[in-house]
Write a structure and sequence with these properties.
By secondary structure, this protein is α/β, with parallel strands linked by helices. It has two domains: 1-28 and 188-219, no CATH class; 29-184, SPOUT methyltransferase, trefoil knot domain (Alpha/beta knot). The protein contains nine helices and seven strands; from the N terminus they run H-H-E-H-E-H-E-H-E-E-E-H-E-H-H-H. The protein has helices spanning 3-11, 15-25, 42-54, 73-76, 91-100, 139-144, 162-179, 188-202, 206-218, and strands at 32-37, 59-63, 84-88, 104-108, 115-116, 126-130, 147-150. It has a seven-stranded parallel sheet with strand order 3-2-1-6-4-7-5, sandwiched between helices. The model has no long low-confidence stretch (mean pLDDT 89).
Length: 219
Amino acid sequence: MDIQLFNYLQSLLTDRRRALFKEVLAQRTRHFTVVTEDVYQLHNTSAVMRSCDVFGIQDLHVVEEKYGKRIDREIAMGAQKWVNLFRYDTIKGCIASLRKQGYQIIATTPHDESTLLHEFDVTKKSAFFFGKENDGLSDLVLQEADGVLKIPMYGFTESLNISVSAAIILQEVVTRMRIENVPWALSDAEKLEIEMAWTQKTIKSTPEIIERYYKDKNS
């Protein structure tokens, strides 16, 4: 990264915005991440992205093997600026990528053999997979999963909307992660990279400003 460019772009932000970036980055984590698999309804993935931002999850992974969808900006309510979105054409590719990053694969499912949410081990780096609205996760995810997780339910309804499920799970695991003193924080290098991206997304006409910066620098 060009630190001089970073410092120049930062100078175009208000003191309040720079302070807010650092405050939020101090709470961001990649200890947990979220994956949606072929979610059909656009607003559901968008709402999951919003929950990721709210609970400090930096990365959202979207598998679009069957349905190609964009993020609904209205539902995400600006979260697309702050959460890194990774898209995959196949579930196999997504799982392989996450395993290389050290994540265990956790399938969320109401099946009886699942681990109850309050019993989940939050010390392990985990990727939570959420499936299609009606069919749930694919057989491949269930076969490849290192563990299965469910939210305890006590009524007639056997499932929750995907965005609701994601919010409930994230609130629980993120809270316990912090209480149990898990090393969840981003590295300084990760914070700097994300802060640079946020800075560029905040400033209007960033490409033109960067082009002019280098032109003036090299003249």
